[in-house]
Each structure stands twice: as C-alpha cells, then as structure tokens.
Backbone:
C-alpha cells in the first residue's frame, strides 16, 4: 500500500491577488510557481512527521503531522487562488501538454478544499486521533496484549476454535474504539462533498480520481459475474478443509476460522498440499528482494537503508511505502516475519518504492508521483504475487527440482485462489463504502455482514451489530480507495501479459517472474514509472500495454 498517496490533498494564504496578465501562460506560470514554492515544504514536513508518527507512535509527531496537514488545507483552500486556476482551466487557453496537466492536477487537488476550512481541519484532527488509535491498539486475549502479527499467527496457525475466535474478536475491538469517530468522519466528509455539488463523498472521490460512478459499478458487476462460480468452488473446498482442521461442521464455520482477519487471503495449507509459509520460514526476505529487484536493474539498498522493517512498540502494525520528498527519499515501513505474508508484502511495498524511485528526475514536483493509485497498486500487486510464482520459487529460492515442481503446482493453485478470494473481498469493501456514504444512518454492521455473506459466502457471527467494519483501517483512514487495488490487479495482469509477449518473446505470463531480466526493468522504467503523472492514467495504460484497461487478462489468468 503506497501511503504517500494517502496524504491529505488538502492552504496558508498566497500572496495578495494580482491582476491577470494578457498572456494566460504567464498567468499560469506565476500561479504554479508560487503555489509550488509553498506546497513543497509543507508536503515534505507533513510526510516526514507522518513517517515519524507511524514509526514511533509519539504524540508530538502526530501533532506536527496535524499542523502541517492543516497548513496544506489552508494552502489549497485559498478562494482567490482557486478562482484564478478555475478561470484558466475553463478558458482552455493553456494548450501546452505539460502545463495543461499541471493545471488539471492543481485544479483537482484544490477542489475538495473549497469547502469550509474549519470542517476540513476537524476531519484532519479526527483522522490523526484515529490513526494513533490504530497504531497503539493491542488485542487483549486471555490477559495478554497481542500485536497484529501475534493475532495473525494465532488465527493462521491454531487448530483450536476457541483460540482463533478470541484472537479474532480481540483484534476487532479496535472497530469499537473508532466507531463513533468513523461515523463523525463520514458525516463531515459527506458535508464537504455536498457543499461542492456532489451527492456524497464517495462519488466525489471517484470524480476527482477521473473514474465515473457508473463505470466503477459496471466493472465490479462484471467481476462479480466472472468470479462468482469459480469462487464458490474454491470456497467449498476451503470450507471442507477448515471444517476438518477445527473439528466442526462446515455450517458451523465462522469468520475467525479462515486463517486471516478479513478473509482476503488464501488460508495456509489450502494451496494444494504444500504450506507456502513453510517454504519461507528460513528465508532471508531482504536478500531475496535485493536479488530479485537487482536482477531487474533496480537497486533497493538505498531504500532499505532508510526503511523501518521490524516490529517495535508504538509503531504502526501495517505496511506501506512512501516518498517523503517526491525525489530521492523513498522508504518502506514493514513489520517483517519469515512467512508467506511478509514475503509477498515486502516485494509489494518495495514495488511501490521502486516505482517512486524511478520516476524521471525531470518530471516537475507537482507531477512527480504515479498518474493514479491503481498504477502503483497494480505494479506492487504484480510484484507481491511473485512470491507465489513458480519461476520465482525455482530461481529466487533455489529449490531442488522436485521440490520446486511440487511447490510450483501448489503456488499456481494458491495464487488463483488468492486472486479470486481478493476479488470477492474487494467487492465487499467497494460496496460497503458506497453504501455507507450513500446512507450513513443505516445499520452499518448489518450492511457489512450482509455483503460479506453475499460476496465472500461467510457465515456471520451471532452478533452482527458489532462495528467490525471499523477494524479495517482503509474504511476509516483511506476512504474511497479500495477499488484501486482491484483495478490495479486488472492492470497488473494486463501489464504482465504485455511484458511476457514483448520482452520475454511470447511466454505464458504465469510462467515467468522476469528473473534477472534487465530489459524487463528497462521496459517498466520507460513505459510505467518514468512518466510519473504526466498523463491521464488511462493514457499511460494504453501507452504501456497497447490498450485501455480491461478485465480480460485477469480472466485469462485466474478465471478461465
């Protein structure tokens, strides 16, 4: 997850208004340069304080972050500045492609901040409090305080029904801690959206991300139709295995029996007879990542040197990549353990990191970021999935041929299962957030579990009024974002197929990890990373893959 993308797009007053010049290019250049001169240091301060807050949990770091983000709100809320930007945008006289893109980015960046600054600052203050709650939450189980990794281990490894239920419910308690503040945030975010002419916050965020509401829902309806049957087959097989594991009937299985907090991953041992966790338990994950990315011509030692990779008190229990200065200060936060989850996650987060690192140096600061979150998420998901790719298992882990063949078969089955499971989980997230922002006064617990029952085919717990939805950090702090993961997965399949054809000479995309293929890295730097945000995301996808974003490559790899 690239958390740099989650920094609020949120104004200290600019210089006093000046008369618009006859030349619109001169007008825009002056406005852009003045805006950038103020935006850049505030962005860096906000990102730096945010990094410190998430690596230490210290209250003063959170206060610094809140102060910097408040200043960003003020910067982007300047009414006089926005009026000039809007006039230039609507006038259509900025025709230079680079300037037109900068103008468009500034315009969309400032739109949500034309709401009441007091409301925007209140949102930031509550988000900061909630982030600290997530970072410091420890699950209380049988008198012990457990980290998220501890809970994941119990839920993933235990065969005792009572143990996994206690651990799962202990983690979900963070949802109750943030429930009231989440509902306040939803109300405030909707207030902002409606003041700007949108029916709710979710729809506004889609519009600002250049995604149509109908386009998104149609895409997810198509995915639902494609994946429902294959997922039901996999789910039936998983249920049979979990029932045996816990000594219960399939009808007695509950959400805590699936080896994961939200059933967004394939349970360990459900990959065809080989436990992929066992394959990674004695591996040096950083060494694997160095060798892999190095073979692509992407050095990561500098990124690792700046990163924070292991558990410690007060630190965020999650994982993300960030670029603190939209330049050379790229770093990753992880809480690494030697298992499949962190083998995947470390490759994923370093995928975000190399994307940021290899944006061309001549891309202006305002455009020095991925063109859309789905692009960096897609590439990162492609890299994370390599931990289960048969080519990667053989070449990176140097497994004996017979072991590699057995693991490769399991890995392929595991990866197909994982992608289908994630696609159904993404349905829950997208439709829950869409429903929550459309009607925040409904019974959200009932909505959550009805969606999980419909799309993930899970038996809900006895008490569906619990605010378990609040335990998913994205719902609270990264709203209207989760569709980017699924759209990113579609892009990943499309990109992988294109590279297998053009770089690897027509190989089956599932059979290669591009191991030690520097021209694959060159292709990515030129066609995906390098341009940054110079183009609309769909333009970049078409340039990189030869066609617009489509679901057909995802279907070819994981459905058909």
Residues:
């Amino acid at each position: 997850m690239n958390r740099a993308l989650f920094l609020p797009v949120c104004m200290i007053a600019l210089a006093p208004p000046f008369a618009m010049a006859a030349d619109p290019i001169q007008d825009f250049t002056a406005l852009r340069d003045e805006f950038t001169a103020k935006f850049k240091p505030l962005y860096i301060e906000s990102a730096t304080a945010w990094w410190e807050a998430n690596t230490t949990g210290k209250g003063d770091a959170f206060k610094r972050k809140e102060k910097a983000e408040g200043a960003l709100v003020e910067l982007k809320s300047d009414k006089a500045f926005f009026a000039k930007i809007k006039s230039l945008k609507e006038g259509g006289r900025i025709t230079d492609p680079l300037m037109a893109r900068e103008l468009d980015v500034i315009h969309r960046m400032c739109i949500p901040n034309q709401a009441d600054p007091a409301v925007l600052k209140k949102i930031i203050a509550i988000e900061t409090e909630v982030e600290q709650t997530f970072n410091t939450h420890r699950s209380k189980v049988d008198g012990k305080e457990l980290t998220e990794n501890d809970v994941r281990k119990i839920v993933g490894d235990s065969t005792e029904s009572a143990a996994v239920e206690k651990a799962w419910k202990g983690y979900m308690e963070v949802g109750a801690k943030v429930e009231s503040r989440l509902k306040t945030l939803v109300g405030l975010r909707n207030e902002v959206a409606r003041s700007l002419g949108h029916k709710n916050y979710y729809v506004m965020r889609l519009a600002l991300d250049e995604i149509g509401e109908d386009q998104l829902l149609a895409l997810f309806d198509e995915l639902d139709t494609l994946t429902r049957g294959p997922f039901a087959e996999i789910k039936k097989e998983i249920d049979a295995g979990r029932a045996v594991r816990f000594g219960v009937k399939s009808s007695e299985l509950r959400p805590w029996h699936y080896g994961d907090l939200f059933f967004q991953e394939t349970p360990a041992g459900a990959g065809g007879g080989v436990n992929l966790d066992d394959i990674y338990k004695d591996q040096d994950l950083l060494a694997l990542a160095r060798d892999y990315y190095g073979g692509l011509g992407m050095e990561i030692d500098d990124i690792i040197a700046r990163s924070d990779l292991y558990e410690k008190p007060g630190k965020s229990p999650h994982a993300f990549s960030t670029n603190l200065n939209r330049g050379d200060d790229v770093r990753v936060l992880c809480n690494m353990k030697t298992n499949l989850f962190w083998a995947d996650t470390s490759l994923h987060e370093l995928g975000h990191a190399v994307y940021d690192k290899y944006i061309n140096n001549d891309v202006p600061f305002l455009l020095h970021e991925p063109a859309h979150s789905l692009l960096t998420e897609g590439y990162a998901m492609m890299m994370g999935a390599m931990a289960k790719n048969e080519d990667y298992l053989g070449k990176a882990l140097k497994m004996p041929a017979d072991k590699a063949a057995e693991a490769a078969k399991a890995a392929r089955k595991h990866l197909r299962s994982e992608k289908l499971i994630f696609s159904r989980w993404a349905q829950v997230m997208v439709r829950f957030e869409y429903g929550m922002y459309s009607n925040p006064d409904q019974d959200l617990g009932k909505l959550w579990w009805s969606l999980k029952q419909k799309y993930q085919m899970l038996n809900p717990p006895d008490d569906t009024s619990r605010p378990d939805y609040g335990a998913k950090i994205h719902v609270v702090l990264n709203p209207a974002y989760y569709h980017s993961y699924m759209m990113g997965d579609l892009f990943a399949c499309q990109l992988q197929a294109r590279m297998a054809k053009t770089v690897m000479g027509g190989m089956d995309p599932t059979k290669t990890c591009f191991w030690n293929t520097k021209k694959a890295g060159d292709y990515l730097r030129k066609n995906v990373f390098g341009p940054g945000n110079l183009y609309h995301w769909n333009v970049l996808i078409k340039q990189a893959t030869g066609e617009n974003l489509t679901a057909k490559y995802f279907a070819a790899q994981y459905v058909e």
